[in-house]
Amino acid sequence: MNYFKGRHFQQDIIIVAVGYYFRFSLSYRDIVELLRDRGVSVQHTTVMRWVHHYGPIFKALWRQHQTSHTKSWRIDETYINVKGHWTYLYRAIDSNGLTLDFELRKHRDYAAAYHFLKRLLTTNGRPDRLVTDQYRATLKAVKHLMKQDYLSKSAHQCSKYRNNLIEQDHRFIKRHRVRSASFQSIRTASATLSGIEVIHALRKKTRRELCLIGFSAVDELKAMVPA
């Protein structure tokens, strides 16, 4: 599938724009200025539309390219402000800190936790250890999944200390803010965070593998796009 067919700008220009935006704490106007210095004239609203369109696409491509991970997982959620209201970004990483999955939800409740955990277990199989906090809605979802045989009782652990790994991992996502404006809808927030999470996941993987040439968000996104 050609994800860039019919676009006014070339594929490389779009990938550079969204790659810089997802990787660094830049505004849309910052991206416009960077592109102008390279001889490309584009409006900030166009960059915004690219971010909202390609964030979910890169998330889907990243899921297709995921490699093996450890069977010890950490699950937690963090707060994201969307138009003055708190929403909740559910996240999962393994014991090496590599991202397994993520999902933005309107509420922090049983339904949100159950939906996220069920998809995580369905996609990645049964872990040897699943560490969560002691939030009642999450514990209820875990117990329900145990009854459905998605998870063994011995695998689940509640430990604030063991969950420090994912608490620290939230920092990159929380620190990445658009300076010009906050998120205006759950749809655009989810799309933008999808791209940010994918770049964060790819960067952690590159650092884990001790890549000698360093990390490039643009090169990683290009590598994911089908030829």
From TrEMBL:
InterPro entries: DDE_dom (IPR032874), IS_Transposase (IPR052183), RNaseH-like_sf (IPR012337), Transpos_IS6 (IPR047930). The keyword DNA-binding applies. Residues 71-205 form the DDE domain. SUPFAM superfamilies: Ribonuclease H-like (SSF53098). GO terms for biological process: DNA recombination; transposition. PANTHER family: BLL1675 PROTEIN. This is IS6 family transposase. One of its GO terms (molecular function) is DNA binding. Keywords: DNA recombination, DNA-binding, Plasmid, Transposition. Pfam families: DDE_Tnp_IS240.
